[in-house]
């Protein structure tokens, strides 16, 4: 899948350190033992799983990323509606293999 416009914007914002992590995002990072450094550095090699350019709160994208050990992470990044900054980490979690395809790109039915 080609890179989405939303993910391109997110990557540029992260590169310029224009990042915010939501309260929910911090909670989920802690719950799944994901470091902020892993989530920030991992977006550069992220792969789009689902893209929501017209989401009512602002464009957002579900991205498959890896931590520094190479373990998969799903991260939802967004940009607030009516804004061009910052990149907001909405949530991040370690995908449950019982709920996702083997490549972690499709939800199981």
UniProtKB/TrEMBL annotation:
<dbReference type="Pfam" id="PF14076">
    <property type="entry name" value="DUF4258"/>
</dbReference>
<protein>
    <recommendedName>
        <fullName>DUF4258 domain-containing protein</fullName>
    </recommendedName>
</protein>
<dbReference type="InterPro" id="IPR025354">
    <property type="entry name" value="DUF4258"/>
</dbReference>
């Amino acid at each position: 899948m080609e890179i989405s416009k939303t993910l391109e914007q997110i990557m540029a914002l992260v590169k310029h350190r224009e990042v915010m992590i939501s309260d929910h995002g911090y909670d989920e990072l802690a719950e799944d033992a994901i470091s902020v450094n892993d989530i920030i550095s991992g977006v550069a090699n992220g792969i789009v799983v689902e893209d929501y350019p017209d989401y009512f709160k602002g464009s957002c994208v579900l991205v498959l990323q890896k931590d520094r050990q190479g373990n998969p992470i799903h991260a939802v990044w967004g940009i607030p509606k009516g804004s061009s900054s910052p990149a907001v980490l909405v949530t991040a979690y370690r995908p449950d293999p019982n709920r996702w395809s083997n490549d972690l790109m499709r939800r199981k039915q």
